[in-house]
Amino acid sequence: MDSSQPDFDYLFKLLLIGDSGVGKSSLLLSFTSDTFDDLSPTIGVDFKVKIVTLGGKKLKLAIWDTAGQERFRTLTSSYYRGAQGVIMVYDVTRRETFTNLKDIWAKEIDLYSTNQDCIRMLVGNKVDKDSERVVTKKEGIDFARECGCLYLECSAKTRVNVEQCFEELVLKILDTPSLLAEGSKGVKKNIFSQKPPEADASTSGCC
């Protein structure tokens, strides 16, 4: 087999961002391995790969899960580089996680994203805890409209809307010519040969 011919049509880099504990890693795990675990906080960055067929194309998704803790923030600029899609996750039972998306995370995308047309998706997680909900669906929809995002509520635990969340994002990327061009470029220079940046103690904003 000719190893220079990748076995997929496009390679997309997707990012999961949001406060620590909102369920980013659980969403990723639920989507990539069909399981749900209560996970300990991600240290720095983690990423998983999933091959999916959507819109008649075979796609390789490299989904990066970033740490929500403040001290890892200095690492983040490099993670945004080249991302075609960003999923902003909040917890519907914790208002500050929603507020921080507006005040911190949405601004980070503007600051660091290298793709002008990068697709954003707002995701309200933990709808299985409906009795504890403090952020209404209407608030989510209004914020998504305000910043031009796709919007979904889901539950990593019950898997409600988890697949849809990634699929809608990817279909929108497939609909965006500039991002498609990026995606095919990624295939040629396979991003997996580039090691993610190491967390360097001297650059971390700790203490």
Automatic annotation (TrEMBL):
Domain of life where this protein originates: Eukaryota
Q: Which GO terms describe its cellular component?
A: plasma membrane
Localization per record: Cell membrane
Write out the GO biological process terms: protein transport
Chain coiled-coil ranges: none
Q: Name one GO molecular function term.
A: GTPase activity
Pfam families named among the record's database cross-references: Ras
Family per similarity comment: Belongs to the small GTPase superfamily. Rab family.
**Under which name does UniProt file this protein?**
Uncharacterized protein
Which organism is this entry from? Aquilegia coerulea (Rocky mountain columbine)
